[in-house]
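Quick log. Single chain, no ligands specified.
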Amino acid sequence: MVSVDFAKFRLIGIYMPNLLAKIPYWEALIAPSHRRALTVHWPSATLVLVAHISTRRGAIDRTALYMDAIERIGFRDLWRQRYPERREYSWFSTKRNGFRIDHAFLSQRLAPFAGTIHYAHDERVAGLSDHSPLILEPAV
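-> predicted structure:
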């Protein structure tokens, strides 16, 4: 996890391991003590979590419940909030199954002010990465 403070918000980047190895990371992220530490200097809770979490909402695995837990502590999956019915993938398995495992979670207070959000697939298709980067642009 990397955290950078800007004038009006804090940006936190997270990369979680795969499968059940990510459970301790999810637990630490949603723990009350960690939430207090994240917001101690940011009482307005203007936080952005950009995360490669390898977790999918609705998936049949033991980590899918954390997608609901992150929302219960006040963060919104901005892409899903903007496109509730749309299917898009940020990663494809070798079996050509697509999954949206890269996310931008914004605090409830910051989410309404966010700009555009989209997945850029050209980089993955060109072989520069095995992921389609999630692009979150500031509001104009």
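The radius of gyration is 15 Å.
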